[in-house]
Amino acid sequence: MTKATSTQILLASRPSGWPTQENFTVQTVELPELETGEIRVRNEFISVDPYMRGRMNDTRSYIPPFQIGEQILGGAIGRVIETADAAFPAGTLVQHQLGWSDTVQAGSSNFKPAPDLPGVSSSLRLHILGMTGLTAYVGLSAIANLAEGETVFVSGAAGAVGTAAGQIAKLMGAKRVIGSAGSAEKVELLTSKYGYDAAFNYKDGDVREQLAAAAPEGIDVFFDNVGGDHLEAALAAFNDGGRAALCGAIASYNTTEPAPGPQNMSNLITRGLKLQGFTLSSYLELAPEFGERMGQWFSEGKIAYDETIVDGIENTVDAFLGMMRGANTGKMLVRI
Amino acid sequence: MTKATSTQILLASRPSGWPTQENFTVQTVELPELETGEIRVRNEFISVDPYMRGRMNDTRSYIPPFQIGEQILGGAIGRVIETADAAFPAGTLVQHQLGWSDTVQAGSSNFKPAPDLPGVSSSLRLHILGMTGLTAYVGLSAIANLAEGETVFVSGAAGAVGTAAGQIAKLMGAKRVIGSAGSAEKVELLTSKYGYDAAFNYKDGDVREQLAAAAPEGIDVFFDNVGGDHLEAALAAFNDGGRAALCGAIASYNTTEPAPGPQNMSNLITRGLKLQGFTLSSYLELAPEFGERMGQWFSEGKIAYDETIVDGIENTVDAFLGMMRGANTGKMLVRI
């Protein structure tokens, strides 16, 4: 009987600025026999996400940094292929956070069963029906307190969180939703497919001017995935009482020098604004509420999504680097 | 019978950078006879406040800018000297927002009776028992949600709002309160008189380093009167879930070039921080609650304060400019 193996991506060294292939190594290891209570899972899809870049640095954050020489962790979904826990029979679809490998085995408490949805790819559990959609929902509801009739600006709107945020904002009653993206094709998709009322290409010119033109009556809520000039533009466009949910700052993830912050922070005082950063781990109690509302919207056909899929565990780093550079529309995934 | 007159300070031109005497004019006008429902008030004290600098610019804000050629408005307290409203007999102590003049007359709806407190100067209604104290209370309670056992940092702590904020924070149960000020004398007062557990002179060195030394376990709440390097230092010192109440940004009020914001805005996300600006006008509904709590603290002798008093309406601009430069400890006032 051939031994089972697992091909895994490890952090080889901490990136300085943009990560490169040299910061990672691929290894294939033999897996030991299962112990009682363990299961072995063959992944179907692996998630690559912007926040992972932060964990590659050795800095204080809400989750500890990845360790050099250890495997990159993150969301994935797969099926049980061998089991030593009767509660997880072979074939069970399971989600986990054990990350960048094609096959994983561990105690079953590390896995959460994910009911198969007829006609729906398991990959959706890693984005619109999962953490990504929940992130958009938490930012708009619990952080920004979006109210009906308000105007919302989403930066990096063609990414996984951004495509979810625009649609959820409209379904929550936003009057006008504006998005920024990094190509003409993405901008077109935002208005044609994702329900954005207006969109602009941030590479076309000054973000502040483009936002002002798209939001002649100002903005009330800002969902930020980008930071930098996008945050400064939002601070300039905010109406009194505006709220920002700061979800990501991809503009600064790969810089080596700290970038200066917005020049117009004093607007926070004169307009009574709120900026609040958040990470999903503090808001997981909203998952049931999100699941109910998103399940309803999804079953009614009100939710569009895109996936950008890279095949093969050995191409995971390529997928990650492409996502950081905006090569994806919607969710970037690795298919095993 | 000699005519009644009013000596008033007008905005002559909009300051660029630091205001100078040339931006203001003094005029003395004859007052007309009172019409029915009007009262004439001789001011006892006039308030000069940092926020007034903002109203001298022609920029969008929560309150409209002062108009060139018109009188500077703001808080004052005085006594009715002539009346055409039986509800406001001569001698009544009244507060109002009609600003920089020695004598003011207007419809009585512009005035609020202020009961005389035995042995207490009417000036306290303009600071610790009034808007200044309320500002400190709103920032700590409604904006920053200060909880018992937390560590608080107050910038510009020797000013009118700062001296109130430190004491209120301790009375609300803060474990440790840290303040910054601009002279050794002020720093000494913060710990000896105002209940601060630690204080430093921001002119002595890097604010971030001094704050880190004073707050080895980090800070949970930041009450900001200064902005600039103080905000950046607070973002570096915040524990997870920290909250900032942004009340003022005196560091930038008199600059002509916009200053870059903090370099460490991404801490907002990784630590789940909240920055919220506020102006008192949106939180006046907290005045009764504040009045009750502060009245109790004050009557128990738990509240210290200082006043820096300048005499004479003609010296109001000097008082204002001195306050902007930090010449005051506690509340800067003009006595008529």
Automatic annotation (TrEMBL), chains A, B:
<protein>
    <submittedName>
        <fullName>NADP-dependent oxidoreductase</fullName>
    </submittedName>
</protein>
<feature type="domain" description="Enoyl reductase (ER)">
    <location>
        <begin position="20"/>
        <end position="334"/>
    </location>
</feature>
<dbReference type="Pfam" id="PF00107">
    <property type="entry name" value="ADH_zinc_N"/>
</dbReference>
<keyword id="KW-0560">Oxidoreductase</keyword>
<dbReference type="InterPro" id="IPR041694">
    <property type="entry name" value="ADH_N_2"/>
</dbReference>
<dbReference type="Pfam" id="PF16884">
    <property type="entry name" value="ADH_N_2"/>
</dbReference>
<dbReference type="InterPro" id="IPR045010">
    <property type="entry name" value="MDR_fam"/>
</dbReference>
<dbReference type="InterPro" id="IPR013149">
    <property type="entry name" value="ADH-like_C"/>
</dbReference>
<dbReference type="InterPro" id="IPR011032">
    <property type="entry name" value="GroES-like_sf"/>
</dbReference>
<dbReference type="InterPro" id="IPR020843">
    <property type="entry name" value="ER"/>
</dbReference>
<dbReference type="InterPro" id="IPR036291">
    <property type="entry name" value="NAD(P)-bd_dom_sf"/>
</dbReference>
